[in-house]
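Give me the fold.
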Amino acid sequence: MVMDMAETDENSSDTPQRQVVCPICTKEFPEDEITFHASRCGESFDSAQSSAANDYSPSLPAQTPVFEPKHVEDVLCFLQHQVDTTTEFKLCVHRDDLPDRGILQWKRKKSATPVSALKVVYIGEAGIDTGALRKEFLTDMISGIENRFFEGTGSHGKNPMYSLTDLDNDNFRVVGEIMAVSLAQGGPPPAFLKEWCYNFLCTGEVDFNSLSLEDVSDLESCLLISKVQDAADSQSLMLCADEIVSCGYTSQIKMDSKDGIIRAIVLHSTTRLIPMLQQLQKGMKLYGLVDQMGGNPEACRSLFVPGEIIKRMMIPSSSEGGKVCLQSREKDVVHTKEVNHIRDVKQAIFFQ
């Protein structure tokens, strides 16, 4: 009888455990571990719900879980769970000329999508990417993207740089994808956007009433605003008539119309960037990031808008047995008022 029981126990231990899908993160776990996992997973995804179909790309998952993030940790936790760790998005890049070369290689990848786990190999260097090379690449790319595709002062945030060439080459879409991958796969947050740009990415609309002089970043518009402000009489103001009219101002140009003229310049400088922001938003739909930003913009704000120092974040990572744990990691991203101050000090003068 004892032998029969032993044989029964032995046979039962050999029987593979039934896999159960977690309703929160949609991953499979053994049946005897699903309860523990779901309780831990639910701490960060307590308001998870099923979403509508994701229309980003046919190559991406048909659906993306949507939840209402309450903290920045929830957003990062959600994004990491959307990475397809079963496939790889491999890049072989050179350290020089980033981010342009990185973006070019990114666009050339046809057999994989950036929803997969990013793996990076540097040309001429031996090494296997176990995570460090990926983080180094993403750090260099985010820094390069900020300097190459955006302009403005570090303390007030930056606008996309107006460039029809980059727009036609779909570069801003790739920039948006890289931003999403950086947040989901251990890179730094792109916390250098102006407030109005971030709000547009969240809603797809511009609040024209909230636009101000600080939202202008291109040097040409800054110089024109400075000329209008410094004009001592109507004659000196009329010297800028052609530039003022090109900004869409159609009323009479006179001294008591300065506010209206400056308003026209601000609107012209910002609204012409909408196509760049739309393309950027398209790329940021990766992993359902735009949906999370729109659902609760306050939870995502510190990831995109300067003004806060992000030193430590709690990032979820899968451990053995399918359990989810939170690991704290240092963030090497500090946005202060001194960032880019020397380079942009002349431009900042125009806002005074």
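The first strand starts at residue 19 and ends at 21.
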